[in-house]
Known about the structure:
This protein is α+β, with helices and mostly antiparallel strands. About 25% of the residues lie in helices and about 15% in strands. The chain contains two helices and two strands; from the N terminus they run αββα.
Amino acid sequence: MRESTVTIKGQTTLPKDVRAALQLHPGDRVRYMILDGGEVRLVRSRPVTQLAGLLKGRTDRRASLEDIDEAIAKGAAGE
């Protein structure tokens, strides 16, 4: 388990292996998702333009909310 210290300004440095796992580079943005139970998930934020084509191959033109959520999750994960 990795950890870092929070400064008086509320800032912290992400450990190198965390940055590598998220494929983060200077200037990249991250998103914090607060989960039930007080856990927080940190993901690399991606521009919406990178989500284009994630629903390709579908035979119908309508996507369910579950399909959209799955596509957003895949885009955030870099798949």
